[in-house]
């Protein structure tokens, strides 16, 4: 980087009195300057991608977080820009005020962002396609212990990291409405490579200034009750994680970005090759969950209606082009669309889905597949279109996201498909990018790793961390590691004080559970365990308890009543333990506000204990578990998702595993009776009864009683204690106490375990995941 010209361009974009510039102005000037400096580089890389077989990653969510620091790091200009800021009397840390681009809910969207980073770094031609939501995931605050939601107007002060490309605009046709899809491109810079990926996010706009033919205000208001206006389509991200809403606007969103992305792919291909006959030789499309699966009939529609291919040929091409990643085994998350809705909004797509279903049935008849089975796998069942079944039929590869998850898919959710097409199934255990999740968020630990390894090439080769295992018994190394962890804990404590107004003791153990709030993730189990420890300290059965700060970060879907009740309950438990003089110095509970990628960066670096306590068989993989491991936290968790592989890599003796396993639950669940567990165990009865015994308050909503009833009597379609909290809690508390006890008994021995977790995190680099997808699924290089 030419520092002089950087400073000139940068300051040229600032107000004359540089010191008066707001963080937003600094960010805008910095972003635009960097984008300009690397524009040519990006444009070359784009052309390079188009000249090869390439991958397109279609995802309804890209949880990219804050771009500025990461871009400076991966472009190798962080220190220079930092120095330039200082010389100008500015502080790069002021850009902490810049909002995250929270264009995703959680793990699925963050995975997409990590994948693009890895592909760019590995020099692979992979580009992302998604939606440019005007409002990302809501901003959360905690008011009186309850979640409050505010809109997330993330582009309010501009978005210097995106470039609008009007020339690539696509028209999207719904029945009775045509809208424009205008792409905004974000560069995804690889770390120490020439390669740059592109994340193309589509924004919906009206074709004309007014796309409705009503003129007076009353008519307008009447019409707006009915009509979804063009801009509405990309207005807001649905805040549901792992549940299917089945709403019309959501279907419009799915079709919107699927159609726009495929049109873009087809246009570029035709411009270069003059034919689509070889399309499948040059493009591989990954469907991130079922949200983009409407791309399958859409590709066929374009090939048949616009390009003159037969349906059979188009279907054959689709089968070569698409691949499907499944992210969940939970029934309530499997997407289904009502036939009448699809027919009303997208009649031609509906007709093609019927044809795909007929083709599937014809294949089944030829193979003499029994009727019970064809009834189960057909795409249209009754009046519902099953998106996962369409994806399985028209894809080359189907993958789960951790070993156990892929096994469960084969055994249960997709077992019919597995028996028909076993060769299509693969496992691709998820990963995280080490650029953001250690090099950026833990510069102190990264510098130390670099010092020990002699160079920083490990940032592109995470397996090299294994070489550090030889220091596991070197007390000097462990002491340095502890000092760094301590520094990160202090930084987090300072941040929590500033951001959430809560004092915490950085000398205490940091036990952290950060992830979306969901019953299956069992934050309620964690809260119960804290109460259990509280009662144990009070009655003297728990002695010498080492002071521990239990930190939670989680957003609940705004309409998910029970999850919101759990947030309030956690805060109420926190109030109880801190009001009591017997425990206030020993237990602290913090529920941080607005957990997002930037907050996660601070939390993972500071954790001692990583809580990964989902009911076995429910968490497909998890990626938060990997971020925490990489930063040297031990896992306190169940045998679920990637926890199993984490323990395989880092050693069971260095982690804290508890609870019923999948095979055990299969036997237990049919007979499980939460009421007899409740009645037969004094402590379980005591902590669960806290929901109704008046020790905590739900503000009179009755929500705590509802939680209580869900555990003992069942609720909606779920059996009592569907997620087995009461069954696992004793083992959980004992394991947790052992873990905290180990920390306080011998900090060095505990640090050794933490260290070995970090050393063995190499497998969980998304570089490994992406290299595997590239070789075995996409065939790109
Ligand atoms: C990594 C990440 C997640 C996923 O966490 P899990 O523990 O795997 O569910 C969710 N939200 C954010 C902000 C993340 O960074």
TrEMBL record:
Primary location: cytoplasm
Broad class of enzyme this protein falls into: transferase
GO cellular component, one term: cytoplasm
MF terms (GO), sorted A to Z: glycogen phosphorylase activity; pyridoxal phosphate binding
Compartments it resides in: Cytoplasm
CDD domains: GT35_Glycogen_Phosphorylase
Catalytic reactions of this protein: [(1->4)-alpha-D-glucosyl](n) + phosphate = [(1->4)-alpha-D-glucosyl](n-1) + alpha-D-glucose 1-phosphate
Keywords noted in UniProt: Allosteric enzyme, Carbohydrate metabolism, Cytoplasm, Glycosyltransferase, Pyridoxal phosphate, Transferase
EC annotation from Swiss-Prot or TrEMBL: 2.4.1.1
InterPro entries associated with the record: Glycg_phsphrylas, Glyco_trans_35, Pyridoxal_P_attach_site
Function summary: Allosteric enzyme that catalyzes the rate-limiting step in glycogen catabolism, the phosphorolytic cleavage of glycogen to produce glucose-1-phosphate, and plays a central role in maintaining cellular and organismal glucose homeostasis.
Similarity remark: Belongs to the glycogen phosphorylase family.
Protein name: Alpha-1,4 glucan phosphorylase
Organism: Ruminococcus flavefaciens 007c
